[in-house]
Amino acid sequence: MADFDPEKFEDKYANYFPELQQAYKNAFNRMNDRYDSQLVHAIDQQVLNESEPFYDGDGEFRVELPDEPYDRLSGVLVDEERFEEVLEIHVEEIETELRRVFGFA
Amino acid sequence: MSTETQNDGDDLEERVTNFLRRNFPQIQMHGGSAAIQDIDRETGEVSIALGGACSGCGISPMTIQAIKSRMVKEIPEIETVNASTGMDGGGDTGGMSPSFPGETVDDGEADEGPEAPF
Question: With an 8 Å Cβ cutoff, are A50 and B85 in contact?
Fold first, then answer.
C-alpha cells in the first residue's frame, strides 16, 4: 500500500509511477472481462494514452481525457453513444482503482 | 582540416535509450520493447514506439504519459515526445508538448504490435 502524499502526487510520474500503472492495469483487466475486448483495447491505447490523473483532495481522484475522444478512435466500429458509455465506466474504474491503490477505499 | 563528427545525433539517441532503460526497465520486464523511431534534433522531437507486451496490457497509457512527462525534464534537448503503441490509430499524439510553427509529425508506424492479452 502506497503511503500517499498529495504533494508528491504533483510529480506523480516520478513518485507514484508503479501505483498509477497498477490502477490503470486493474481497471483495464476488469473492463476487458466485462466489455468488448476490441473496444476496451482501443480506449486503452487511443484515448487513455493521453489521459492524466489528478488528486482532488479528500481521497478523490479525477482522470482528465483528451478532447474529442470519439474522434481519436480508429479500427473499431462502435456508435458514439456506446463508446461514451464504456469510456465513462472505464474512467470510473480507474478512479476507483486509484482510491484503492492509494489506500482511500 | 575538418574532421566531421556526426556523433551528436547518436549521442542524443544514446541518452534517450539510456533514459528509457534507466527509468522504465519494466517495459522489458513485461516482455515489451521501446524503440526510437525518429529523432529530430532541429525541433527536439523524438518518436518512440512501444511494442510487444506493452500493446494492450493496460499499463501502456501511464507508461506513455510518464515517458512524455519525464523525458522533456531530464533531457533538455528534447521538447516533444511522440510515444505510441502498435495499436495506435495514427492520430496526432503530441498532447503534452508545446507545438512549433512548421512542426511536422512523422507517423512512421507500419507495424501492428502483437497483442498479448493476459
Answer: no
**Cβ distance A40 to A94 under 8 Å?**
no
Residues of B in contact with A14 (CB under 8 A): 70
Q: Is A45 in contact with B26 (Cβ distance < 8 A)? A: no
The per-residue pLDDT for B93 is 36
B89 at interface of A, judged by CB pairs closer than 8 A: yes
Percentage of residues of chain A with pLDDT beyond 90: 90
Q: What are the tens digits of pLDDT across the range B94-114? A: 333 343 444 444 444 444 445
d(CA B96, CA B80): 8
- Asked if A49 and B64 come within 8 Å (Cβ–Cβ), the reply is yes
pTM score: 0.75
The H-assigned helical ranges of chain A are 6-9, 12-15, 17-34, 37-42, 69-72, 80-101
DSSP code string of B53-75: TTTTSS-HHHHHHHHHHHHHHH-
CA neighbor of A36 nearest in space, from A87, A70, A74: A87
Hey, are the CB atoms on A25 and B88 less than 8 Å from each other? no
Model confidence pLDDT, tens digit, residues B11-60: 888 999 889 888 887 776 667 778 888 999 999 999 988 876 555 567 88
